[in-house]
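Weekly modeling sync, notes
Attendees: S.R. (lead), two postdocs, one rotation student

Agenda item 3: backlog of single-chain predictions. S.R. asked that every request posted to the team notebook include the full sequence so nobody has to chase files. The rotation student volunteered to paste the first one in as an example of the format we agreed on. Action items at the bottom.

Example entry:
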Amino acid sequence: MTTAVSRNANNPFTATRAEERHAVYAALAAAGPVHRITLPTGEPAWLITGYHEARQALHDGRLVKSDRVLTTTGRGVLAPEMHTAMTSHMLNNNARDHTRLRRLVAAAFTRRRVEQLAPRIQQITDELLDAMAGEAQVDLIDSFAYPLPITVICELLGVPAQRRSEFHTWSSIVVSGVLAGPEVFKAASAAMVCFLRELVAVKRAAPADDMLSALVAVRDGADQLSEDELTSMAFLLLVAGHETTVNLIANGVLALLTHPEQLALLQTQPKRLAAAIEELLRFDGPLQVTTLRLTTEPVVLGGVTIPAGEIVLPALLAANRGTACIPEPDTLDITQHGQPTSGLRPWHPSLPGRTAGPAGRPHRTGQPAHPLSPAAPGRAARGADQAAQRAHAQPHRASRHTGVTPGGGWRRRARSSCSSMSISAACSGVGAVPPRCAGIHQGSVPGGSG
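Predicted structure, as returned to the notebook:
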């Protein structure tokens, strides 16, 4: 069965409130697992809302990344050299090229380097929470969810302190894509690429103990990352690492505050933190869809034959709210993840090409955990009871959230604005790393691309 979806009515990409978007996806999923839609860019595509069908699509080697797909996400807006400087990363490549990039980048993401980040990330987290302490209400995104990952990424890349303000400004525009306005988007993208090129030159001339210096220096025989690959990797870290973290914190905190019994359970039983993160990723994850794929030959999904040369878009948000994924998908229950589950989740760039488990923990690879995760929930847990008494949430307007390719802002996930919200300290631990792999995500497709 296929279902037509107009651009202006009952369209998940134009639904601006989280509950509206969930309702649209639920209606689509009830009608069938595969739908013919029109993307906001005007191109036709196939939206996959069924859990089993989305899982199949993410594993099917006949669905690939392609230049044609990239034309829908910024190539027509940005100058070719700008687009190449922002998109020459693993997320846009297939098996052979992806494997090459993964091998080079993984050499810089060593366990030692990532473990060294943990104390500093905990310090940043503590400072942000301390600044919020005593306030009756705070804006969660402005006060915590945004500054935590962007500060870590700036330090990770070695962005000088005096340049971080403008770096923040550019990144906010770039991750919004063309929705920020074509000219504004082009100007910010050009400024970002110019800055990253300058930064690469500085790190090449005077290497420091940061990730960008390591990426500049990494070699695999005679092979090394090109200039465009270096700037693109920095962009990937910024968008995929930063934006997914902002969304996970914001959506996770909102889910806990609107389900006080689950928050109370987590506060009294902090050992459930790992399962809670898994459940929050499933219940209201940071991205609504994966990156776009193109069929190289006819592919049958859910009884529907999708011809060769068609765009396919697995819908994580719909699949994770289906009964095929979990018996009561619309219920937030942090106790139901005692066993590994099969929820679909976004790909994190910090473990390039690895099959990641909860919150980016690698699956049987021995690689380090996601560097944007607070090292431990201890600081949060200690202040949980007091902060929980202050927890308060007003009705929230959801702002739309982002994908990971320039111009791809329509891929955004509905993110809670969380304005006028005081945050329970327990919730700041939602980025902590759980201990086990629980299922598949974008990165588990052949070749490891997202």
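Discussion: group reviewed the output briefly. Confidence is low (pLDDT under 50) at residues 1-9, 338-342, 347-449.
Action items: rotation student to repeat for the remaining queue; S.R. to check formatting next week.
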